Amino acid sequence: MTDTRELITYNFRFTFLDGDDTDQTHTFSVQLDEQTLDAVFPPRETYPAWTKLEYSQCPNCPLNPAEHPQCPIAVSLIPLIDFVRDAVSFRKVRIAVESESRTYQKETTMQEAVSSLLGMLMVTAGCPVMDKLRPMLRSHLPFATASETAYRFLSMYMLAQYFLHKRGETPDFELEGLRTLFLDVQDVNQHFWQRFAAAQVEDASTNALVILDNLAQYAAFSLDIGELEETESLFRAYFPDAPSP
Fold it and tell me: Which among 54, 77, 105, 93 is positioned nearest to 205, based on CA atoms?
């Protein structure tokens, strides 16, 4: 049967800046369904043992092993594990993230380069927890800073509440559920350490998880330190009673 889905392609081009393969470029491509943003990979006949759902299953995972024998994120990460299996996290690389609309490029460490790729795969695999972050891919921002990530997290969450309101559901405009979302994401990140250990990958992927987890923690922390109030001043044009700058 022919697959007629329209696909979005992201190419992650890694050029190593040190070592024996300096100036050699290695490309990892991610294809996403244009409508759903599901990651699309060729089917496999067999799967490594560390991809089983029950293998270090996240405590907040709602999936049933009888219906989902493999963890969807673990399955989506098989090509990435093979790609970076021997990568060292602090190795210098030039990473270019190419899409149809633009290209982002940066000279950085392997762990930061992999974190952008890892984040994309984790939210497009079909994990019910990480699926809640999928809307952020519509404005994918590789190499985002912690404050940029926090802003995008919060903006996405508020837009979700608007859509819930339109559907007649009860929105969470007080952001009370946002911390729960952050904690759920952190649980997933932390439990994947054990899966990566089973896959015997070098530290680039595990350190990339640290970066993603730190970004999520920063976004949660920003709710407690008043960053929202600091950001509020930037929206003064929306306030009819606000003084001119």
Answer: 77
Q: Which residues pair with 39 in a beta bridge?
A: 32
In the chain, where are the structural domains located? 7-132+143-231
Residue found by looking up tokens 């912690």 in the block? 146
> Whole-angstrom Cα distance, residue 86 to residue 14?
14
State how far the alpha carbon of 144 is from the alpha carbons of 139, 148, 149, 151, in Å: 11, 6, 6, 10
- The β-bridge relationship of strands 103-109 and 25-33 is unpaired
In the numeric block, which tokens belong to residue 38?
A: 């599901």
The amino acid at residue 204 is: A
Residue 99 pLDDT exceeds 70: yes
If one counts every other C-beta atom within 10 angstroms of the C-beta of residue 82, the result is 11
pLDDT in tens, 27-70: 999 999 999 999 998 888 899 888 899 988 888 899 999 999 99
